[in-house]
Specification:
About 50% of the residues lie in helices and about 20% in strands. The strands form 6 sheets. It has a 7-stranded mixed sheet with strand order 14-26-25-24-15-22-23, sandwiched between helices. Strands 6-5-7-13-8-11 form a 6-stranded antiparallel sheet, with no helix packed on it. The chain has a 6-stranded antiparallel sheet with strand order 16-21-20-19-18-17.
């Protein structure tokens, strides 16, 4: 069964007719009130404010007429005012009850409507029909409605603030964009932007779509979508995101993604998923919540009958027992315990440049005990430089570089970028290599004039049985210096070696120290050679290193750790390490912020900063603690206060306590669900750095 994203009550998808489709996801609701609150929260808040503006003055007057001011028609005036409160201010509860009856489900509105109507109707009938024992409880029915409406208002206010920050990201998109067509500029609405369009973005303007800078240089403020507070310098060929702010220079961008494919929209989808997520630890509360409302009504009837038949209570007290039980119960706290915390936690993460994907990623992240990290692009900057070009006898440096460029010309691998950058600084013709094929973890192969050509890592070349001959000493020398070596092969024979150096990432050492402080092991696993891996590991503070590991070897290592009962997170670039990211209990993709939908990771680090790994795990632990606290409160509240409402305090205070219990129960119920949302909202201030 589906769950209402507002109150958490179960809804039968087969018979439900209150639905809303948003971003290709169907939401199911137990009442029109919940539907309106979800679809148009600001308007629903305005409606609630209007009802409260009526409820509290009239309720205060009814209380005054009941206890302070007495005159012959006071009871009739109280009836008139209480009727307005009951049927105008309390109208949402009746609508919710009608919706529940049509859908054959139970919701919180049923309990509130039945409880308040019982108190109001008995009072009205006893006033109109003199033969019935007089008992006026207009103050109780009015106060209960006013208190519950107030609780609903506070809960909605906190919920809107919790999730609105991310949901309102779309508001930061500009209304129009400037498109350049055949050298002429024209302002167009966002809906007309298409992939491939060229847009002009002036200083201070927001960028309308994801794309790549074609001309111009500027700084871009990306704090809105990546959490990076400082402006980022951008030039031709570099990506920009919709919703970010262009700095001091005018640029033209070529549109790469529009509408639902933009990074901004992907964030919105992740937050929408969080609103519907239910962690495994919610299962007990779900089972309780599914039968809670009918169980409460049964307890209310049994308790009232028991006090009336065996407890010596009159009909008036029995009525108050019934009202107290129905009003005190709070099934909403069960339903919203998980989604409220996940919504805030996911939103907080998005603002920090950390995106959680999937329903269980948050809970899995809270249990991580071992972090496996790739080296290149994760523990290092990911932008190595080509430092050595060592050709074999009879081969020139320019020829060797030309062959390497021919092989790597279309690749996005960090080593390929280093080769291409070196070629730009040392111009040489690109060899016409064809049938180029990348072999993850090994290198790249192709054909040149019908002859096989390859660029392989030193370890991969040795595994293939290649005899490096005189180049072996060069490879060993590069290895001792902590550099990465790649062998160029022609006709399966080595014709040269390329050496690369990649500096450790600036935040890597700090990230590893933080993980160690949190009691989490960190292991480096890389396809690079042992000396190069050890050099980086010593710099960042990692003790356990697995070097020369193939993609299959990474999977084997992860499975071995999992077989020992470890919850494993793997941190990689999200492309070459997709199998490892999938096999790990938690895949953390770094350097893949603009391709959220395509990545294999459960967590995406938009800023490509390794320091966000411990931050993400801390946020997950804090969020799960909030969920556990919410569930503990929901169970504890109902376990303690329902017996009180059923008469648990009567032996101490007598049956007279029921003159106040219905109102006290309404106050407690209103506060309960608000506390659950408020406890979740406090995640916004929880320290995770």
């Amino acid at each position: 069964m589906a769950t209402d994203p507002v109150c958490g009550m179960f809804v039968d998808e087969r018979s439900a007719d209150l639905t809303l489709v948003r971003e290709n996801r169907t939401y199911y609701f137990c009442s029109t009130v919940c539907l309106h609150q979800f679809a148009e929260p600001e308007r629903e808040l305005a409606r609630l404010r209007a009802r409260l503006a009526v409820a509290w003055p009239l309720t205060a007057t009814v209380v005054g007429l009941t206890y302070v001011v007495h005159f012959p028609a006071a009871s009739w005036v109280a009836l008139a005012l209480a009727s307005v409160v009951q049927f105008y201010c309390g109208l949402p509860f009746y609508r919710g009850t009608w919706d529940a009856a049509r859908a054959r489900i139970w919701n919180m509105d049923v309990l509130i409507a039945i409880g308040t109507t019982a108190a109001y109707a008995y009072s009205a009938v006893s006033l109109v029909i003199p033969s019935i024992p007089s008992a006026e409880f207009f103050d109780a029915s009015s106060l209960i409605i006013a208190l519950i409406l107030t609780g609903n208002y506070l809960e909605q206010l906190v919920r809107e603030r919790a999730g609105g920050a991310v949901r309102r990201l779309r508001e930061y998109l500009p209304a129009v964009a400037t498109r350049i067509t055949e050298g002429r500029e024209k302002e167009i609405p966002l809906s007309e932007i298409r992939v491939g369009d060229v847009l002009r973005v002036r200083p201070g303007e927001r960028i309308a779509a994801d794309g790549t800078i074609r001309e111009g240089r500027s700084t871009v403020l990306e704090a809105l979508v990546t959490g990076e507070s400082l402006p980022v310098r951008k030039g031709p060929g570099e990506p920009v995101l919709a919703g970010t702010v262009n700095g001091e220079g005018a640029v033209t961008i070529e549109v790469g993604r529009v509408g639902p494919d933009t990074f901004l929209e992907q964030i919105g989808r992740l937050v929408s998923e969080a609103e519907m997520s239910r962690l495994p630890l919610q299962s007990l509360a779900d089972r309780i919540g599914s039968i809670f409302a009918p169980l409460v009504l049964l307890l209310a009837v049994v308790s009232a009958a028991a006090w009336f038949v065996w407890g010596g209570a009159g009909g008036t007290v029995a009525l108050f027992v019934f009202v107290s039980v129905t009003i005190t119960a709070c099934p909403c706290a069960f339903g919203i315990a998980t989604p409220a915390a996940l919504l805030v936690g996911t939103g907080r993460g998005a603002e920090e440049g950390i995106l959680f994907k999937g329903k269980s990623s948050m809970e899995m992240a809270s249990h991580v005990g071992v972090v496996l990290a790739d080296k290149t692009g994760t523990l290092t900057r990911g932008s190595p430089t080509l430092t050595d070009i060592v050709p074999a006898q009879g081969v020139s440096k320019s020829e060797l570089l030309s062959l390497a460029v021919g092989l790597e010309g279309g690749s996005e691998h960090p080593l390929a970028r280093a080769i291409l950058e070196s070629a730009r600084n040392n111009p040489s013709p690109r060899s016409p290599v064809v049938e180029v094929r990348a072999e993850p973890g090994r290198g790249v192969t192709g054909l040149l004039g019908g002859h096989p050509l390859a660029l392989l890592g030193v370890a991969a070349a040795k595994e293939a049985g290649v005899d490096l001959g005189p180049l072996a000493s060069i490879a060993d020398s590069l290895s001792r210096q902590g550099r990465t070596g790649s062998v160029v092969l022609r006709d399966h024979q080595p014709i040269g070696i390329l050496g690369f150096s990649d500096e450790p990432s600036p935040g890597a050492a700090e990230a590893i120290a933080t993980l160690r402080q949190d009691g989490i092991e960190t292991v480096m696993v890389t396809g690079d050679n042992e000396p190069a891996a050890r050099t980086v590991a010593e710099h960042v503070g990692i003790e356990e290193v697995h070097a020369g590991v193939s993609p299959e070897g990474k999977l084997q290592l992860i499975r071995e750790l999992q077989s020992r009962g470890k919850t494993v997170a793997f941190v990689g670039d999200g492309l070459n390490d997709a199998p490892a990211l999938t096999q790990a209990n938690l895949g953390i993709a770094i350097g893949a912020g603009t391709d959220v939908a395509q990545e294999a990771g459960d967590v995406i680090l938009v800023r490509s900063d390794l320091r966000d790994v411990p931050t993400a795990l801390r946020l997950a632990r804090a969020t799960v603690r909030k969920v556990q606290g919410n569930l503990t409160w929901a169970l504890g509240y109902n376990a303690v206060l329902l017996p009180v409402a059923m008469g648990g305090l009567v032996p101490l205070f007598g049956l007279g306590i029921y003159r106040f219990l219905p109102i006290a129960g309404a106050l407690a119920m209103a506060v309960s669900s608000t506390l659950v949302v408020g406890n979740s909202y406090s995640l916004r201030w929880t320290r995770i750095d």
